[in-house]
Design goal:
The protein is of the alpha/beta class and 236 residues long. The protein is 33% helix and 19% strand.
Length: 236
């Protein structure tokens, strides 16, 4: 019987993904040995479309929760609290996701479980949750742009926020120093996509490369599991 696999390709693909409005912005690259070649960024209509891309991504680092706590806790999940400590004053960028009960509509938004960011992004969070399983975590990992930049910056938090000119220049300088060819992503012009989000997916893409190369670190080192068997952790 003939194989149903496609042809063996001479490269692998990795992706950094972040929500953009009702869609998903992806920074992608091909990897062949030591060659890392960023591609033009792309918008996907759904997270399922990201997973259905062919050839399939070998590793995906997504700026959205993967594992969810069942009950609210002070400061969110352990990974959220550890990440804030690592990032110092930039830790303010790490928002605690809602509980799984809120995600499933089993608890009212008025319970105080949602901050403004989570309320806006809840539909995107639900997309990811609908696709995730423990098996899928072999490919899909939760990341955060600030943690990616922390690693790129020699394990030091950035000085400025991405909503400032100084912050965007700081991020651009770090990316251009560490990733040859990254200008293909960060200089791209996509209607409705701001520079700060291109910088975000470029940093997440770097982390996806580290996942592919088995060099990524986990936060925390000993992950917790949620009630669906999903690891609650960041990679960087």
């Amino acid at each position: 019987m003939p194989s149903r696999r496609g042809p063996d390709l001479p490269y692998f693909t990795v992706a950094g993904i972040t929500p953009r409005g009702r869609r998903w912005l992806a920074g992608t690259a091909k990897i062949n040995g030591a060659t890392f070649a960023p591609e033009e960024p792309k918008l996907y209509d759904s997270f399922a479309d990201v997973l259905d891309e062919r050839p399939s991504f070998t590793s995906i680092v997504v700026n959205a929760p993967v594992g969810y706590a069942d009950t609210p806790g002070m400061g969110g999940r352990t990974c959220d609290r550890v990440a804030r400590t690592m990032l110092g004053r930039r830790g303010i960028a790490v928002h605690s996701p809602p509980t799984r009960a809120v995600l499933l509509g089993e608890s009212s938004w008025r319970d105080g479980h949602l901050d403004a960011v989570s309320a806006t992004l809840l539909p995107r969070y639900m997309e990811v949750a609908a696709e995730m399983s423990p098996y899928r975590q072999r490919t899909v990992y939760e990341g955060h742009p600030e943690l990616s930049f922390y690693q790129l910056n020699g394990d030091a938090p950035l000085l400025w926020g991405k909503n400032t000119d100084a912050g965007r220049e700081e991020r651009r300088r770090i990316l251009e120093k560490k990733i040859p060819g990254i200008s293909r992503i960060i200089d791209s012009e996509i209607p409705g996509v701001p520079e700060k989000q291109l910088l975000d997916v470029a940093a997440l893409l770097w982390t996806a490369r580290r996942v592919y190369g088995h060099a990524a670190k986990r936060v925390p080192e000993d992950a917790e599991w949620d009630s669906e068997g999903l690891r609650m952790e960041f990679v960087l």
